[in-house]
Design brief:
Blueprint lengths: L2 E4 L8 E6 L11 H6 L8 E6 L3 E4 L4 E4 L16 H20 L7 E6 L1 H9 L9 E5 L6 H5 L10 E7 L7 H14 L5 E6 L8 H19 L2
Parallel strand pairs: 2-3, 2-6, 6-7, 7-8, 8-9
Antiparallel strand pairs: 1-3, 4-5
Helix pairs in contact: 2-3
Family: Belongs to the AB hydrolase superfamily. AB hydrolase 2 family.
GO biological process, one term: fatty acid metabolic process
GO cellular component, one term: cytoplasm
Amino acid sequence: MSCIRIAAKVQPAKQAIIVFHGLGDTGMGWTFLAEHLQKNERFQRTNFIFPTAPTVPVAMAGCRMPSWFDLFEPGFDTDKWDVDGIKKSLNILNGYVKEQMDAGITSKNIVVGGFSQGAALTLASIKFLPWEMAAFVSLSGFVPMKKSLRGMSNNVNRSTRVFHGHGGMDMMVPHERAEEARSFFKDECSMQNYELHTYPMMEHSASEPELEDLEKFLSEVFDAVKSE
């Protein structure tokens, strides 16, 4: 599988950020995040990993494109999910985390994040990953396969912080999906560190204010690990 890896500027690397792109995109589309964060000295020892999803048929789009799982309905307010595809991609996500751990970075120094469909995969990984992570980042994301997630008893990341950034003008993944995600994890999964950041004029994209808030969040997360 294609993946762009940007090594920490200062070795050995002490932390890692893994980012999963949205539907139809590639890992290259999010490398700007590494460029943005590496301007901050706090991220000089951070590895950045940007995987690209396999190209598969997507029912909702009627064609083949890079996708972490099949999608059937727009709006994502549905009970119809490609559970097998999601679980397959969760295993891929698991492998990238394990790769960084094998390189000597502890799980509590690894952040998993994504945009849109990649954010949905990230949110599902909260109940899937067997290790306590540094944090999870959902940018314009939604919760897939809630029924399956409810059946997972894994609560190792119950206290882990989550940053969810979402645009108030998002027509692709409506802001209601962000509110539902927060409610699901706080009310049904007892996660009290789920932070929803709303950007009223932002559409289905990232913005400078969101990136500034994310940079502050990630700095706090890694600083907290150092102080333990």
